[in-house]
């Protein structure tokens, strides 16, 4: 398990280095996730231990939302004064994300059905 946690952290570090050096406008962890994805595509499969490690981390993913929730509650007064701009930024982005995710899943589902 420890080698695969190290692998995940090294991918995140590599992504952080790449985005900083290249001045890319994306978060380093996202670039690291792309690097990990490309590595898995080249390998052709996900090692069982990496899958087990990832599932263990995903099981506790909800805990990462606790600090964000506390921040919202702590700054609720400030957010209430800026409710319209925040809603104008969050709602369209959320709707667009849901729509794009749905379309991607439909296409991937069709592609998987054709391969079988």
TrEMBL record:
<protein>
    <submittedName>
        <fullName>Antiholin-like protein LrgA</fullName>
    </submittedName>
</protein>
<dbReference type="Pfam" id="PF03788">
    <property type="entry name" value="LrgA"/>
</dbReference>
<feature type="transmembrane region" description="Helical">
    <location>
        <begin position="24"/>
        <end position="44"/>
    </location>
</feature>
<dbReference type="InterPro" id="IPR005538">
    <property type="entry name" value="LrgA/CidA"/>
</dbReference>
<keyword id="KW-0812">Transmembrane</keyword>
<feature type="transmembrane region" description="Helical">
    <location>
        <begin position="82"/>
        <end position="105"/>
    </location>
</feature>
<keyword id="KW-0472">Membrane</keyword>
<keyword id="KW-1133">Transmembrane helix</keyword>
<feature type="transmembrane region" description="Helical">
    <location>
        <begin position="56"/>
        <end position="76"/>
    </location>
</feature>
<dbReference type="GO" id="GO:0005886">
    <property type="term" value="C:plasma membrane"/>
</dbReference>
<keyword id="KW-1003">Cell membrane</keyword>
């Amino acid at each position: 398990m420890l080698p695969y946690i190290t692998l995940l952290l090294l991918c995140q570090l590599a992504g952080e280095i790449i985005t900083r050096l290249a001045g890319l406008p994306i978060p380093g962890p996202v670039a690291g996730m792309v690097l990990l994805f490309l590595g898995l595509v080249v390998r052709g499969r996900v090692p069982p231990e990496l899958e087990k490690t990832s599932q263990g981390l995903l099981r506790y993913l909800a805990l990462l939302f606790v600090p964000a929730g506390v921040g919202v509650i702590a700054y609720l007064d400030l957010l209430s004064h800026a409710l319209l701009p925040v809603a104008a930024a969050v709602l369209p982005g959320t709707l667009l994300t849901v729509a794009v995710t749905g379309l991607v899943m439909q296409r991937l589902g069709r592609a998987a059905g054709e391969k079988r």
